[in-house]
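Annex B. Sample input.
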Amino acid sequence: MPKFDHLTLPVADWRQSRDWYIQRLEMKLEFEIPERRTAAIQDENLFTIFLQQSDGSVPSEGVALYFKVPDLEALHQRLARAGLMLDHPPQRVFWGYGAELTDPNGYLVRLWDERSMQEKGS
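Annex B, continued. Sample output.
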């Protein structure tokens, strides 16, 4: 069976997007290709998102990225202490239990953890 391991997201500013994902979601920079205006960022499971600067509009409407985190409440507290606001804090939502924020390109980022989803998601 194939394993999904890379995704390209068109972005308005690849450097701003790179920094946003690294600072807020603690993803790591895998590599950059400045001449292609692209940064590759990775999660802890080595899933790579290519943030590629678009010359046109960024088609963010209808796109949601779901990130499973080790501890949703702890991440929320770290972000809040750093002054980084979420669209909404951890709470019961139609897809279970989690928090949401919007990246600089309008992509919806949904955060959840396994424990909270089991305890509060249904």
